[in-house]
Design goal:
The complex is a heterodimer of chains A (about 290) and B (about 250). Chain A contains nine helices and four strands, in the order αααββαααααββα. Chain A is mainly alpha-helical and about 290 residues long. Chain A has two domains: about 190 residues, no CATH class; about 80 residues, no CATH class. A two-stranded antiparallel ribbon of chain A has the order 1-2. In chain A, strands 3-4 form a two-stranded antiparallel sheet. In chain A, helix 6 packs across helix 7. The longest helix of chain A has about 35 residues. With about 250 residues, chain B is mostly helical. Chain B has a domain of about 170 residues: Arp2/3 complex 21 kDa subunit ARPC3. In chain B, helix 5 packs antiparallel against helix 6 and helix 8 crosses helix 10. The radius of gyration of chain B is 19 Å and the shape is globular. The chains are: A mainly alpha (about 290), B mainly alpha (about 250). Chains A and B meet through helix 3, helix 4, helix 6, helix 7 and helix 8 of A and helix 1, helix 2, helix 3, helix 5 and helix 10 of B.
């Protein structure tokens, strides 16, 4: 993956630059661009097809957000029909679509960010100013699957010993409580064992540094500068009202050269990830074809 | 030196972010502001936690507790609103103090959202659960004495959580804060609020006794989170010490 070679700080700034304008602007064009960029990236990088459950869930969320707004909001001038004496307006339906696109695209970008910045990179990113918080985050992320696995083993053992069946509700609840209680004891003991090992390796001693795999190179600086430049231009144009958009009472949108430039710059930002990934793919296939 | 830089950075950065939001995100300024408040109010608390001396043991115990509350949230995923995170946060705060409660509450939100999906709501959840932990730590003396008070606090914490999340819902949908819509959102979320409150009470009644006992045991055994240990700041700042002496007189 192309993003593996990029410093996590650049990835974090990129993530913020993609999500924040779409989140805090009313303009649906930004939402559409950000949604399209996320889909492109996910299609290019996802090894297997997304699970049907994810797609269904996202569609459900989309429909829900679209439907909720016109039910509570009756502003707008184009009435579609009346429901319980309240007008359902075209504008509020479109506003619902904007909100839904926004939620879905941000969910997708968060998913992409999760993939790009794994816990090791997160540690490197936070490690400078929040080392303890970073340690807590990464170790609890590791502990969740470990403790769950342990809980499964305890439950199986308990069942095998015939200490609780899985028939009645009350039986299951007391069994679950018992496993949870053991789990707490075991995990706390596990914590003290791990911390002894950390202490033996010199955790918390003065002058001890943490090794970071990620060095901020020249190419990272170039990327960072390009992203920040794009950001500055987009935010400046937004401040000038070039991306202003209002849904009520009727759809009105700023237009002109500034708007086009702002949308183009934002699209460049959003599609940069997908383009880099695509380039990487093509290069890989090209080199492989020559073998 | 590092501390001064951080403070100057925060003093410049926060007003700058507010001004930028007011100019750039005019249409959804309140949503921006709310997100900023949620993020910024967590920063000093985490910063205080970073400044405090903590042993590897304390950190690992906190990590385990975060993991346990996240697992609880995953296990009960089928029932929306029925999550033990608040109860675990309160129990931790009662045994280990408000700071530990804050850290466990807010990081449980951050970690569990790796499973449930991160979004702009993450800072709000971190804020809400963190503050609940902090409050429980401040009120730990009366809460430890009375079961009834603990349950009342749990129910109130559920309501606080729900009401905080409704702020985000309204701001997200509307971009500006409309009191009427806020009340409507609270009304719409009423069943969920009730569920939060009830589940907190249920989990507190189930867990406060046994888990609290285990935490107290490990606290005593390993000497964790003792309050009399000098913090890094008190060591460097002798001015703090006479104050304490005055108090004892």
């Amino acid at each position: 993956m192309a993003y593996e070679r990029i410093h996590p700080a650049v990835l974090a700034v990129y993530f913020l630059s993609v999500t924040i304008p779409a989140m805090f602007s009313q303009n649906p064009v930004l939402q559409i661009v950000s949604f399209a960029g996320a889909v492109c990236f996910l299609v290019l990088t996802e090894e297997e097809l997304p699970k049907a459950r994810t797609v269904v869930w996202m569609t459900l969320l989309f429909v829900m957000v679209v439907v909720i707004n016109p039910l509570f909001n009756h502003r707008g001038q184009t009435e579609l029909f009346f429901l319980n004496g309240h007008a359902i307006t075209l504008e509020s339906v479109l506003y619902g679509v904007r909100n839904a696109l926004c939620v879905i695209s941000i969910l997708m970008w968060c998913r992409i960010f999760n993939r790009m910045v794994n816990s090791e990179k997160l540690l490197a990113l936070l490690g400078g100013s929040f080392p303890k918080t970073a340690l807590l985050l990464s170790s609890s992320l590791r502990l969740v699957p470990l403790i769950r696995h342990r809980a499964g083993e305890m439950r199986d053992t308990q069942k095998e010993l015939g200490l609780y069946g899985n028939g009645e509700m009350a039986d299951r609840v007391t069994g679950g409580a018992k496993v949870f209680s053991m789990l707490v004891t075991w995990s706390l003991d596990h914590a003290t064992a791990v911390s002894s090992s950390m202490k033996a390796r010199g955790y918390g001693l003065k002058g001890r540094t943490t090794y970071s795999l990620y060095r901020f190179r020249k190419r990272d600086a170039v990327k960072m500068a390009l992203i920040l430049l794009c950001d500055a231009a987009v935010l400046f144009l937004m401040a000038k009202g070039k991306l202003a958009f209002s849904f009520y009472p009727a759809l009105t949108m700023a237009d002109g050269k500034g708007t086009v430039i702002a949308v183009i710059l934002y699209s460049l930002l959003v599609f940069a990830a997908a383009v880099m990934e695509g380039k990487n793919r093509i290069q890989w296939n090209y080199y492989r074809s020559k073998i | 030196m590092k501390k001064t830089i951080t403070i100057i950075l925060l003093a410049v950065l926060i007003p700058a972010l507010v001004v930028v939001g007011a100019v750039v995100f005019r249409e959804r300024f309140y949503a921006w502001l709310a997100l900023l408040v949620a993020v910024i109010s967590c920063v000093p608390l985490f910063y205080a936690f970073e400044r405090r001396d903590s042993t590897a043991k304390e950190l690992m115990v906190l990590a385990v507790l975060i993991a346990l509350s996240v697992i609880g949230r995953i296990v009960f995923v089928e029932i929306p609103g029925f999550k033990p995170v608040t109860a675990v946060t309160i129990i931790v705060a009662l045994s280990f103090g408000g700071e530990a409660g804050f850290v466990v509450g807010s990081l449980s939100a951050a970690v569990s959202n790796f499973y449930f999906g991160h979004g702009p709501w993450t800072p709000f959840q971190m804020f809400a659960w963190g503050i609940i932990g902090l409050l429980a730590g401040l009120l730990k003396k009366p809460l430890k004495k009375s079961r009834i008070l603990l349950c009342v606090f749990g129910a109130l914490a559920g309501i606080l959580f729900s009401v905080t999340m409704d702020v985000w819902t309204v701001l997200w949908a509307e971009g500006t804060f409309v009191p009427k819509e806020y009340l409507a959102a609270i009304g719409a979320a009423l069943p969920l609020t009730v569920e939060y409150a009830v589940s907190n009470v249920v989990f507190l009644l189930l867990l406060a006794g046994p888990v609290g006992k285990k935490l107290e045991r490990i606290k005593k055994k390993e000497g964790l989170f003792t309050e009399e240990r000098p913090t890094a700041r008190a060591e460097k700042n002798p001015a703090d010490i006479p104050e304490k002496e005055e108090l004892s007189k």
